[in-house]
Design brief:
Largest sheet: 11 strands, antiparallel
Oligomer: single chain
Distance between the termini: 33 Å
Number of helices: 3
Shape: elongated
Radius of gyration: 25 Å
Helix content: under 10%
Number of strands: 33
Mean pLDDT: 82
Length: 532
C-alpha cells in the first residue's frame, strides 16, 4: 500500500519571555438556584437548588422568578487582567415573545441546597438547608436585605431570547468588569442574578442548570498575566500521515462525540506549566485529516483529559495551507464539551485570541485558518473539535489538538477518529505524538463490526507506523496476537474481528492506519489510549 506523508513540524519554545501570558478558561457553575416569589410552600419556603432548571421572569400566577448562578474563579491568577467574558445558557422552555434577559451582580452570599423541583420545576419545592429562597440567602437562618435578592440595579449584560432549545450568549464590558473584580477579590464573588420580563404575566423563561446533563451553563474567561518568564519547552514534531484523498466521514452521533466506542477508565498523569520540569511521557498532540463535507459530514476529532487539574491546549483547524489540491478554503472551528455544548468557536484565527495564539509559537500559517487556546477541565472530561467550511464550503482539512501544559496533574488519555475506510490511499489514519523522556505504554484499537450503525467495516486490519513510515506492528483480529496482554488493559475490543496493538513506544511521532481485510470498505474508528 502506498501512503503519502505530510510532515507538520512545529517548534514549541515557551510563552513570550518577559512579556504577558494569555490564557482562556471555560468553567461550569459552582452553584445555581431559583428564587420563587410565591409557591407551594409559600414564599420563603420554596427553592430548587439541586434541580435541573432555573427560571427568570413572571409566571401566569402571576409571580416572579429569578435565577442565580455563580462560578469558582480560583483557577485564574489574582494578578490577571480579564480581557473577555462570555456566559452561555440553554433556553429549554419559553412562554412569550422575544424577551430581554439580564445579568446583575449579586451583593450577598447565597446557597444551593438539596431541593429538587423536578420537571418542569416552575413552582419549586420545599427548601432544604442552605438553599437560597425569595427571603433567605441560606434557608432558614440568613436573609436577604431586600426580598427577591440583593443585587446591582444596573445590569451587567442583557441578551434577547426567544427560541426554545437554543443556547444564548451574554458578554460585554459589564461582565468583564464583574469578573475582574471577583478575580482581584474573591471574597466579593457572589455571581449574578438572572432576570427576565418582570412586568407581563406568562413571560417566564426556563434555562438548564449545572445539574442538567445536557447543555449546562458555561462561563468562558480570557485573561492575561504579566511578568511571566518561562524557559523554552522542548521541540515537538507532529507527523500527520495521511493519504492524498481522505474519505468523507459518516454522520456524527447525536452529541458531537467522535467515537462510538466506550472510553477507558481514566488514569491520572501530569500536564505542564510554562516552565516544565522533566515529566513522565504522555500524548502531546493529535491530528486527523479528512474530507470536510456539509451537514453531518463535518470533521470531528475527539479526546479525553484525565487527572485532577485543568489542561491548556491549542486546537487548530487547518485547510488553505495544506500542500495539495482540493483543500478546505476557509475552515471554521468549534470546541465542544461532552454534552455537545459549545465552549468556543473561531473563524480566522487573528479575529480573536490573536496574542494568545501567537504566544504558543504554533499559530496557523494562513489567516483563514482557525485556532482556539483554552484551559479545559480534567476529571475524565470528553471534548470534540469540529471543523466545517464557511458557507458550507468543502475540501480536505486537518484538525489538531496540542497539549501546552504537561507538568500538572492531567493528560490526554485517549484520542479517536471516525471515518470511512476505503481502499488504496484512502485508508483511515490517525496521528499522535509522544513526548517526554521515557517510553509510554499505549493500546491502539481499530473498531468496526461493534459500531452501532449500518455500513461499518466488517473486518478491520490495523497497522502502527513510526515517524518514518516504518511498520512497528500489525494486527488482524485482536485475539490472534497478544490476547492476554490486550485483555489486561481492561479495554479489549468487543468483537473478535476487531484489531488491537499494545506497545511501549519511545517519544516520537506515530500513525495508526486502518484498512479492510480483502480491500473491504466501511466506517471504522481508530483509537489510541494512554495506559499509564
Amino acid at each position: 500500500m502506498r501512503i503519502h506523508r505530510a510532515l507538520l513540524a512545529f517548534l514549541l519554545f515557551g510563552i513570550m519571555r518577559g512579556g504577558t501570558f494569555a490564557d482562556m478558561v471555560s468553567l461550569s457553575p459552582q452553584k445555581d438556584n431559583t428564587l420563587y416569589e410565591d409557591g407551594n410552600p409559600p414564599a420563603g419556603q420554596t427553592s430548587n437548588g439541586a434541580g435541573a432548571f432555573m427560571f427568570a421572569g413572571k409566571t401566569n400566577v402571576p409571580s416572579l422568578r429569578r435565577g442565580l448562578v455563580a462560578f469558582d474563579l480560583s483557577s485564574i491568577p489574582t494578578n490577571a487582567t480579564v480581557t473577555a467574558v462570555t456566559l452561555t445558557m440553554f433556553l429549554s422552555q419559553t412562554h412569550g415573545d422575544p424577551t430581554a434577559v439580564s445579568l446583575s451582580k449579586v451583593s450577598r452570599a447565597w446557597g444551593e441546597g438539596a431541593s429538587d423541583a423536578g420537571d418542569p420545576g416552575g413552582f419549586g419545592v420545599q427548601a432544604e438547608m442552605n438553599d437560597a429562597t425569595w427571603l433567605h440567602t441560606f434557608y432558614d437562618t440568613s436573609f436577604w436585605v431586600t426580598p427577591g435578592g440583593d443585587f446591582s440595579a444596573t445590569p451587567s449584560a442583557t441578551t434577547l431570547v426567544s427560541t426554545i432549545d437554543t443556547t444564548y450568549t451574554w458578554s460585554g464590558s459589564g461582565l468583564v468588569a464583574d469578573v475582574q473584580a471577583w478575580v482581584s477579590n474573591s471574597a466579593n464573588n457572589f455571581g449574578w442574578v438572572i432576570r427576565g420580563n418582570e412586568t407581563d404575566a406568562g413571560s417566564s423563561e426556563r434555562f438548564n442548570t449545572r445539574e442538567n446533563s445536557s447543555n449546562p451553563p458555561q462561563l468562558t474567561v480570557t485573561y492575561q498575566v504579566p511578568g511571566i518568564t518561562p524557559s523554552p519547552t522542548p521541540t515537538a514534531t507532529a507527523t500527520a500521515t495521511a493519504p492524498p484523498a481522505t474519505p468523507t466521514p459518516p454522520p456524527p452521533s447525536a452529541t458531537p462525540t467522535p467515537s462510538a466506542t466506550p472510553s477507558p477508565p481514566p488514569t491520572p498523569t501530569p500536564t505542564s506549566t510554562p516552565t516544565p520540569p522533566p515529566s513522565p511521557s504522555t500524548l502531546a498532540n493529535i491530528s486527523t485529516r479528512l474530507l470536510v463535507g456539509t451537514g453531518d459530514n463535518v470533521m470531528i476529532g475527539g479526546f479525553i483529559i484525565t487527572g485532577t487539574q485543568s489542561k491548556k491546549v491549542i486546537i487548530r483547524g487547518i485547510g488553505p495551507s495544506l500542500p495539495f489540491a482540493g483543500v478546505l478554503a476557509d475552515p471554521v472551528l468549534e470546541l465542544r464539551n461532552s454534552s455537545g455544548g459549545l465552549i468556543f468557536s473561531n473563524d480566522n484565527w487573528r479575529s480573536s485570541q490573536e496574542a494568545e495564539i501567537i504566544a504558543t509559537t504554533i499559530p496557523p500559517t494562513n489567516e483563514l485558518e482557525s485556532a482556539i487556546v483554552a484551559t479545559l477541565t480534567a476529571n475524565a472530561s470528553n471534548y470534540t473539535a469540529i471543523v466545517r467550511g464557511v458557507d458550507d464550503g468543502t475540501g480536505i482539512g486537518v484538525v489538531e489538538a496540542y497539549d501546552l501544559n504537561r507538568a500538572v496533574d492531567s493528560k490526554l488519555a485517549n484520542i479517536s477518529t471516525r471515518g470511512l475506510v476505503q481502499t488504496g490511499d484512502n485508508v483511515l489514519i490517525g496521528g499522535f505524538i509522544i513526548v517526554g523522556q521515557n517510553p509510554l505504554r499505549v493500546i491502539v484499537r481499530a473498531i468496526g463490526p461493534s459500531l452501532p450503525f449500518a455500513g461499518v467495516l466488517a473486518d478491520p486490519m490495523l497497522e502502527l507506523r513510526d515517524g518514518n513510515g516504518g511498520l512497528i506492528d500489525s494486527n488482524d483480529n485482536w485475539r490472534s496476537d497478544h490476547e492476554q496482554e490486550i485483555i489486561a488493559t481492561t479495554i479489549p475490543p468487543s468483537n473478535n474481528l476487531e484489531s488491537a496493538i499494545v506497545r511501549s513506544l519511545a517519544p516520537g511521532n506515530y500513525t495508526a492506519v486502518v484498512r479492510g481485510v480483502g480491500d473491504t470498505t466501511g466506517v471504522a474508528v481508530v483509537e489510541a489510549y494512554n495506559l499509564e
